[in-house]
Amino acid sequence: MATGLNASMRRWAVPLVIALLVLAAGVTMLSRGSGEQTLTAHFPRTISIYTGSDVRVLGVPVGKVDKVTPDGTDVIVTMHYDKDVKIPKDAQAVIVAPSVVGDRYVQLTPVYTSGPTLKDGAVLQTDRTAVPLELDQIYGSLDQLVSALGPNGANRNGALTDLLQQTAANFGGQGEQVHQTIGDLSKLTKTLDDNKDALFGSASQLETFVNKLAQNDGTVRDFNTALSGVSTMLAGERTDLSASLHNLQVALGNVADFVKENKNALGSNLKGLNQILGTVVKNRDNVNEILQAAPVALSNLYLAYNPDVGSLDTNANLGELAHQLTTDPAQVLCTLTDQLPSGKSLCNLVDKILPRSGVFGAGTGSSYGVKSDPTLGGLVPGTGGAR
What we know:
- By secondary structure, this protein is of the alpha/beta class.
- Among the domains are: 35-132, no CATH class; 203-245; 262-311; 316-382, no CATH class.
- Helix content is 56%, strand content 13%.
- It contains twelve helices and ten strands.
- It has helices at residues 2-35, 135-149, 159-171, 175-194, 196-215, 217-236, 238-261, 263-282, 284-304, 318-327, 329-337, 343-353; strands spanning 36-43, 54-57, 60-71, 74-82, 92-96, 105-109, 122-124, 129-130, 305-306, 311-312.
- The strands form two sheets. Strands 7-1-4-3-2-6-5-8 form an eight-stranded mixed sheet.
- A hairpin with a 2-residue loop joins strand 3 and strand 4.
């Protein structure tokens, strides 16, 4: 009985264990599906990344690596992370080495801010993954550099040695100046950076100016040709030009001496000239009338002179006289009596008898009725008369 019971138990043990494993896997998948999301990333290599390595965002663990599988030239890393953590759709997977010795972890970057998120089961190819530079790669690059600069490379004929020796000779004792130059260059770079908008604006304006010159190439060439001709002419006349400038300098010196010696007289003359000009301005209407009437008067005087007998001939205009007698007889009588000694009293008597049509003397050439001005309109200083 005991032997049969043991055999029966062994017969049911294997199926029972398989069922328990399937149940555990199902429970695990159900629990993961409800609170986790999976992600697959292809890396060129995965040094120090193992099953159970952390998956982080901003250095904070959010998941674990489930599987690391080599696949040709790539390494496939399957991982999961908390479903509550939002990962941007364009995220990248980066292997981070916190120290030279120690486990590494997978960092999902950048941090989510807004927009669509990465879907469950997403796959990131090698163009969206990155790995750190290994120490042996750095040593290998340094070894290649040293070999390239060594006796079997660039310094095969001593070129590198000559360069270093010549550089040391050029900079020997100039350390302070080199330091100052580097500091000034740093300040210049900062100044250019602070004024990049103005610099680019100036460059843009300069480009516009150059384009305008290019568009008006013919005009610019003509201008340059004319300028060249003027320069050639001035070069040919430089002796005369120098002599003229020297004479001008001498003349200006003489003028300065003359003004200095005669400044009182010049001041008085300028004051008098100012007075004359002021009087002319105040009497500009009269001056204008004189300028209009003077040519006619001079012409009449020239035509009235008779050179044969040396006399002034006149032509009595009786028609005009008759017209004036009918229109303004008082004016005619005052004109006739103006030259008599008692002409003024006779004219006053005529004014009482005959009414006058206007101010006597206007346009007749007679000065009767006009107040005399001994200062000649202010040109001559005086105490009487009109100013």
